[in-house]
Amino acid sequence: MSLKALKGIHHVSAITANARKNYEFYTQTLGMRLVKKTINQDDPSVYHLFYADERGNPGTDLTFFDIPNAGQSYPGTNSITATSLRVPTDESLEYWKERFGQFGVEHDEINQRNGRATLAFRDFEGQRLILVSDENNVGVRGGRPWDKSPVPQEYGIRGLGAVQLTVSRFDPTAKVLTEVLGFREKGKYPSPTNGTHNIYVFETGEGGTGAEVHLEERSDLPPERQGRGSVHHVAFRVEDGEELSQWAAKLKELRIPNTGVVERYYFKSLYFREPNGILFELATDGPGFEVDEPFEHLGESLALPPYFEDQRAQIEAMLKPLNTKQRF
Q1: Could you say which residues form the signal peptide (predicted)?
Q2: Which class does domain 9-318 fall in?
């Protein structure tokens, strides 16, 4: 079955154990906009927070499930080991390095990865993040930082860059990326953490950092144990529901177990695991986050899809109050 190429990264979803500190870090330290405060639709007792550009354009969302009792994560293989965030220029990284120093954010030095200037850092729970400069980037366009952000727009985060997968067996994951999802192998570069290993670059659609997966094989590490500070899954972009249904049919034809199309209200989704166990999602570009809130007030109140509205009282009683109108 022939399908259109995936358009790039749609969103990345991670785990936090502290919604308030998470909100403070991603909006005030990183300057992203909270565009939706909603629930994990598979567990309504848990917040699902979406941070993005000014309106949550596809490819800009870094999201978090708030699981207060989440244990410590133990990094390893068969996991998403780094999420990159795009900034406009190499000069932006100098701004961010100084800002991280002011805010006490743990960070590395600026260095080159795959021909781009980058700055790796960790959030307060050890979430592994990398700022990547768009100065020499071509391909999928970035978003537009919110003009009310505490970070100046000329340095602001424009969306998601490449995700890094670390696996115990390279070939099965590479085969799913290329033969199932239609990615192209583009090149490789030395691992910044272990120079004896290469990281291989796969791209889809228009290419560029917003449409890349970086894949590393490590047989010397144990499997990762997920917890606070780890990534739950990565989602890739498809145009609409019709296209997503075609992907569901293709996976069925290939006998790849999957959820089929799932209604998420702000987009439609489909989930499956690649052979090393990493959870992949395909998600539609629309309808987006303004279906139930105006642009000016995105993320300020608890938003529930219509099919959860009759449970609002019970859901609000389970959730710890989180004031997302306040400024820190």
Answers
A1: none
A2: alpha beta
